[in-house]
Amino acid sequence: MRVIYLDNNASTRVADEVVEAMLPYFSNLYGNPSSMHVFGGQLHKRVEDARAEVARLIGAELEEIVFTGCGTESDNTAIMSALESYPRKRHIVTTRVEHPAVLNFCKAMARKGYRVTFLPVDKLGRLDLKELDAAVTEDTAIVSIMYANNETGVIFPMEEIARIVKSKGVLLHTDAVQAVGKIPVDVRKLPVDMLSLSGHKIHAPKGIGALFIRRGIRFSPFIIGGHQEKGRRGGTENVPSIIGIGVACELAAKHMNDENSRVKALRDRLEEGLLACCPNAMVNGDSEHRLPNTTNMSFEYVEGEAILLRLDSYGICASSGSACTSGSLEPSHVLRAMGIPFTAIHGSVRLSLSRYNTDEDVDLVLKKMPEVIKELRHLSPFGREEMARKTGKLRTN
Amino acid sequence: MWEYTEKLKELFLNPKNVGEIENPDAVGEVGNIVCGDALKLTLKIDKETGKILDAKFQTFGCASAIASSSALTELIKGKTIDEAIKIKNQDIAEYLGGLPPEKMHCSVMGREALEVAIADYKGIKIEELIGGKVICKCFDVTDEKIKKVIRENRLTTVEQVTNYTKAGGGCGSCIPDIENILKEVWAERIIEEAIRPKERLTNIKKIALIQEILEREIRPRLQADGGDVELIDVDGNRVIVALRGMCTECVMANVTVKNIEKKLKELVTEDLMVVSEGGQG
Hints:
heterodimer, A: about 400 residues, alpha/beta, seven-stranded mixed β-sheet, three-stranded antiparallel β-sheet, 12 strands, about 40% helix, globular, B: about 280 residues, alpha+beta, 8 strands, about 20% strand
């Protein structure tokens, strides 16, 4: 069965070009870039070339990029570095809709005695910048706000956020894991101090991330070890993956127009088609400021996990914010923070596309999803009267 | 991704007995849309024989909830209501070839719907049936329901209670209350067992009891201090355990072993002697 992969905000297919570029580094070129001999030492140059590609994608300088193990490590490093660098400051500002890499790290810091402000969002998932302005004080060590939300794709106004935070002389970090490679991100124009990105969200492998650290800011390493990464991240470099993320960044720059036009058009056709076919469906999040590849939709009176598993039986891969898809009994913290009613959160589905998706993929989802929703609503004890009123033909038996 | 059995997946994709019986003799409705799962069970019952002639369900919920509901209807069709009421949530889980621990509440929801439906048939009011004080406000779970599920499934931890009832899975503020209910139910059970005429303690029963006491009474306390204990073997009345984690290096290790022995003597049999693996006890 053909797989229709619409879960690219979870992870992406490793691009063929990336795999090809990485292969020699598992076989012939296996040395340690820190070695004195030529065999290992020659890799240093390749690692620096990859670093240059990452830097180029976001407008950074070569020295401003540190390779990490993943986006989570980049996020943790950024926040911990700020707390270590400014030990007298005991306050962190973040949002209620961050990825767990930031959210749970901040909660852990709160348990260690730091004060954390979790900024709310409105029903479209937008921040209130006045609240941000009021929250940042002299005691704030760092503000960490995501560039784009992983569940809804909502893009935060990072330039305005940076203007507010920097006017107060406070460090600003952004988790740009979902934004980099999909929309233009340029740290030359955007005065963030630190920015996280991850390989497996942009068609590089899992287990490689990067952190942009603006030149001149105080930095304290999270992983302490050898002199690798100029002492900013201990541990032998993951050379094959570094080569991979370098190529992935090069490809991302090349494909960005496609993401913003063809992929966006596919996403829009999918979204509009589903809204037209499925009564009591809605899109969660700000449609105007949103990643071009993401839609988060709710289908009332049915449960998300059930939708996903029925779609899975047709080879369609998606994701949900419903409680039943996680180990927890609580549904998506992002949709809850947006005040989406529980009836809609339970039936939420995230569809996230990539450059590998086609018109045929969208056609199949548009064919199967309405069937799935109809079947599950037939099973559900809720919404029958409302559905019958809207469709005029819902079965009761 | 949950690991579901083939049987569960089959019943989820092709559920049996979906729908609502017209003019049913009994209706059992449990759960609600806010909590994320709900089940409406309708029954047709032969009034003379008490036999369940037909059962249909409508479920809002995940794959486990839908499959559990379908399994329930399959299990009860053709049975009399006296036979059906003996069906426990474990039977539903077993019918499906097992459920992930976190999804056991789906089988409990099935059992509950059956109870409510039969009560409805007998003219008993739901309030009289469930009763109790709401402990978990997030998922509207009462102390009586928690006690019942603990007893029926021999639950020993808050995590298990959450998996079976959802209580404690929301804001978590009721967790201390759940801990107290667990202690209360187990205290009752220990008293009941103490006054019950003693059956012959076979080796199998002895090992099972020792393991249960270790799980329930000993390990949570040791784990709270970063330690642990594992049952290695039972040789006659000699119980061999291995201390783990912080307990391994602890200067009080001997005292820990003695305390384990004291508890096992108290709750299993006086003759037991506990030794630690590689140690003298």
